[in-house]
UniProtKB/TrEMBL annotation:
The keyword Protein biosynthesis does not apply. It comes from Quercus rubra (Northern red oak). One of its GO terms (biological process) is DNA-templated transcription termination. Coiled coil: none annotated. InterPro entries: MTERF, MTERF_sf. One of its GO terms (molecular function) is nucleic acid binding. This is Uncharacterized protein.
């Protein structure tokens, strides 16, 4: 902390700490904001911070929510209430229509309170409108992932152009989801993920075809992509093209969903209770409730190990046959 700002030694740190405690901050949250922004100890807490906390409460945020926001993003406390925070909220209210949506945006991306919204968000909205994207989809995108709409206009324009070239329909939700996926990573990270897919035999055309079907498939980390692809190809004997045709598989958790369900299916097939022709993709797509009802609860008296398999306690070695996709 002192390497960041040694002036803290000359501040009235005790008063600032007590101020945060009195306003619902836990000791851990105070520690977090201290390490992130020790400069806060140089401010008069009652004069500078209190009006901001009161303003956030007037928006409908609870004391616990305010503490969470400010301990995560303490830089907000250094922003001017009159020149930055209030104008930002007013602009968000104008664009989003009501305070409920404003709160959703703030909770989804705390840093929105630090942006010059009218200089960043409005130009990006105008760009999407000019491409034929309905305002309803723009607002949906912003409320899901505000960060993607708060990019510098030149970079946002590049992404929109790329999505248009790929042939996405501006009237379809997939259009804004594609923008969102591209917006949350750098160009170099995007290329690293493309190379990860290529290393398993997928062509660039197949990768982008999968992206067009399910834009969120590129959100997964490079490590997750490699782990999932390796499991599908090496353990389930799926061809890479099968995966590119079913990109929703790349949104699933390997440890929590895919492996336990494979273990359950393997156990039930080995007991002759489920046919080998069962579609593995269908099994993966089932809701948790339907999967438990159809393949766990139904057979747990007859095959008690099915519960352990579903809990991930039985190691999955692979199927001795090729499953139907």
């Amino acid at each position: 902390m002192l390497t960041k700002d040694p002036r803290v030694l000359e501040s009235d740190a005790y008063t600032v700490v007590e101020f945060f405690r009195a306003h619902g901050f836990s000791d851990q949250q105070i520690s977090d904001l201290t390490m992130k922004r020790p400069t806060l100890y140089l401010f008069n807490a009652h004069k500078i911070f209190k009006p901001k906390l009161e303003f956030f409460r007037s928006l409908g945020l609870s004391e616990l929510e305010i503490a969470k926001i400010l301990s995560t993003e303490p830089y907000i406390l250094e922003r001017s209430l009159e020149n930055q925070i209030i104008p930002c909220v007013q602009e968000l209210r104008r664009i989003l229509g009501n305070d409920e949506n404003v709160l959703k945006a703030i909770k989804a991306c705390y840093r929105v309170l630090e942006c010059k919204v009218e200089k960043v968000l409005q130009p990006n909205i105008s760009m999407l409108l000019s491409c034929g994207v309905p305002m309803s989809l723009i607002l949906k995108m912003f409320l899901i992932q505000p960060k993607s709409m708060l990019m510098k206009t030149y970079r946002f324009s590049e992404i929109v152009d790329e999505v248009m070239k790929l042939g996405f329909d501006p009237n379809n939700l997939l259009f804004v989801l594609a923008i969102r996926s591209m917006a949350v990573m750098s160009k170099s990270l995007w290329e690293q993920k493309v190379e990860a897919f290529k290393s398993f035999g997928l062509s660039k055309d197949e990768i982008y075809a999968a992206f067009k079907k399910q834009p969120m498939c590129m959100i997964a980390s490079e490590n997750k992509i490699r782990k999932l692809m390796s499991f599908f190809v090496n353990k389930l004997n799926m061809t890479p093209s099968m995966i590119s045709k079913n990109p929703n598989l790349l949104l699933l958790s390997l440890e929590k969903r895919i492996i336990p369900r494979c273990s359950v299916l393997h156990l039930l097939i080995s007991k002759g209770l489920v046919k080998e022709e069962t579609s593995i993709v269908y099994v993966f797509r089932m809701s948790e409730k339907r999967f438990v009802d159809k393949l766990v609860s139904k057979y747990q008296n007859e095959v008690p190990d099915v519960v352990s398999a579903h809990q991930g306690k039985i190691e999955f070695q692979g199927f001795p046959f090729d499953l139907k996709i």
